Amino acid sequence: MPEIRLSEFEAVVFDLDSTLTDTSSYPYKASLWILKQSSENYEDIIKEYIPRLVKNYQLELKRISDGEEYKSPFHCVRDATIATLKEYDIHPKPSILKKGIEQFKSFHVKYSQLQPGTKQVLDALKKLKLRLGIITNSWEGHAPIILEKLSIASYFDSIIDPGTVKAYKPMGQIFQRVLSDLDVAAEDTVFVGDEFYADIVGAGRFGLRTIWINQHDRLLKEFLDIYGSSFHPDVVIKDISELLEFL
């Protein structure tokens, strides 16, 4: 597919976690704490536990996007954690589970860091006078706190999390809200994210152009076979800094 030039658009909307920020360590740290309190075999479990937890969390979001009643990221993380622990026949005390999920929440802010090149990309986009937004599926209310902590909040004209519209990507409501805030049309907007289903399929369904950050060298064909060739991203890159090549 043809490459795009960001300067030809009016707005760029970003995912937050794993796109603009590196949040890879916080689920590990919180999960390790829970497992240490609940299993003598935590060191043998933790490596395969995290991918299972991520999968179960994504299933929680998919159920909501498929029509189940909205529940907060806190409760999605809690229920995904319970489901994953059950797979190992681990049943922590309620007090341990509660503290562990609270650590997930606090660690998300504490351990979020900028991805290399993020500020340079934002500087370049602002020089082009593009409107910038964020849509995140993560913890309600955290995005502004994290952006302030990392000194990039002033770049963004709209910051939307699930609590804003009681919806998660790929649901249309969350994309509609950011476009409304930015006062731009879908066809004049590029979305940048790392999750294929939530980000690329979600934005594509709503008519935005898409840039996929394929950090883990996944085969694009696998996703197109599942979701259809119409969701082929306009651009595939490996990290946020590569956006500088598409100004």
Describe the structure.
The structure is a single chain. With 247 residues, this protein is of the alpha/beta class. The protein folds into 2 domains: 151 residues, HAD superfamily/HAD-like (Rossmann fold, 3-Layer(aba) Sandwich), CATH 3.40.50; 86 residues, Orthogonal Bundle (DNA polymerase, domain 1), CATH 1.10.150. It has 10 helices and 8 strands. It has a 6-stranded parallel β-sheet with strand order 5-4-1-6-7-8. A two-stranded antiparallel sheet has the order 2-3. Strand 4, helix 6 and strand 5 form a beta-alpha-beta unit. The longest helix has 24 residues. The chain is globular and about 55 Å long. The mean pLDDT is 96.
- Report the CATH topology name of the largest domain: Rossmann fold
Judged by helices, strands and strand pairing, the structural class is alpha/beta
CATH architecture annotation name of the largest domain: 3-Layer(aba) Sandwich
| Rg on CA atoms, Å | 18 Å
Number of helices: 10
Question: How many structural domains?
Answer: 2
Low-confidence stretches: none
**Shape by Cα distribution:** globular
- The CATH homologous superfamily name of the largest domain equals HAD superfamily/HAD-like
* Percentage of residues in DSSP E strands: 5-15%
Please write the string of helix (H) and strand (E) elements: EEHHHHEHEHEHHEHEHE
Q: Helical amount among residues, as a percent range?
A: 40-55%
**Main β-sheet description:** 6 strands, parallel
- Give the strand line-up of the largest sheet: 5-4-1-6-7-8
Number of strands: 8
Assign the CATH class of the largest domain.
Alpha Beta
Q: Between the first and last Cα atoms, what is the distance in angstroms?
A: 17 Å
Query: What's the rounded overall pLDDT mean?
Result: 96
